[in-house]
Amino acid sequence: xxxxxxxxxxxxxxxxxxxxxxxxxxxxxxxxxxxxxxxxxxxxxxxxxxxxxxxxxxxxxxxxxxxxxxxxxxxxxxxxxxxxxxxxxxxxxxxxxxxxxxxxxxxxxxxxxxxxxxxxxxxxxxxxxxxxxxxxxxxxxxxxxxxxxxxxxxxxxxxxxxxxxxxxxxxxxxxxxxxxxxxxxxxxxxxxxxxxxxxxxxxxxxxxxxxxxxxxxxxxxxxxxxxxxxxxxxxxxxxxxxxxxxxxxxxxxxxxxxxxxxxxxxxxxxxxxxxxxxxxxxxxxxxxxxxxxxxxxxxxxxxxxxxxxxxxxxxxxxxxxxx
Length: 323
Ligand code: NAP
Hints:
By secondary structure, the chain is an alpha/beta fold.
């Protein structure tokens, strides 16, 4: 079977058009929603993400501001900065960019965010609502998986509820930001949801769970973790992983760093090419699955659109409009 490619870029473009119309309506109603990022110190990854959020806000026509604090800022000052974002009417959504320096606890910052501006569902209140299947801001990456899955099901001419109710779904990874909330979103759609993680792999049980899944969603951060032997014939496979790897020019093995010799053949990697891959061995699994997301251009392409959707929802809530 040659899998259909679920095109995240095309789906993101569709969502963007829908959101652009919503944004116009909100503006007409007097709202001018924006996102604020909060960064403490200059972590490289957080800085990259900050830049991406700013770029995407500009492209979408959303307001943007960054609250940038020095790395030695004490916790009380960071919490005060969050409270000032809570009080700023131009900020509809607040995104704390982690990691924070050691003196600032994640929970102190997250618990101080106004739950009505917590657009990536960090606050325990919103995670609780997600657990109870009550209206909330579903976190962006898990929401992107659901968006891709549901649009794929519709494009196949099937009913989304029927397709998901009782379906065997396996999520690989149980992080607080991806695997766990994704499993909740799937349970809330009555899928038979199994969650596997590193301890499942350590016991040699990963294939037992992944290979019976009609829908397999992988968020482990391990390149090529999922090969065709772990996938059911005809499964729908969503790959959340984003891994920067070094490709050995001699044997093609994926390595983590250029600094060490290739882990398979010992070749020098100093001049080797780098590329971004997911957690799924794309070509081999595409030969067995019925549909698959690429990396890049799959889940990651849709994630920011989900953040924008939550931000517009937050702005509507502030106007007192129905959600
Ligand atoms: P994380 O916090 O490191 O969690 C990874 C999860 O995978 C953990 O639950 C871990 O289990 C599990 N895992 C690790 N090795 C495994 C193995 N060999 N077998 C089975 N499970 C294994 O990472 P994350 O933040 O959830 O992100 C996961 C991946 O998605 C990363 O590649 C990240 O870059 C990517 N990501 C993409 C987007 C997007 O928009 N596309 C957004 C966020 C993250 P334990 O906890 O038991 O160790």
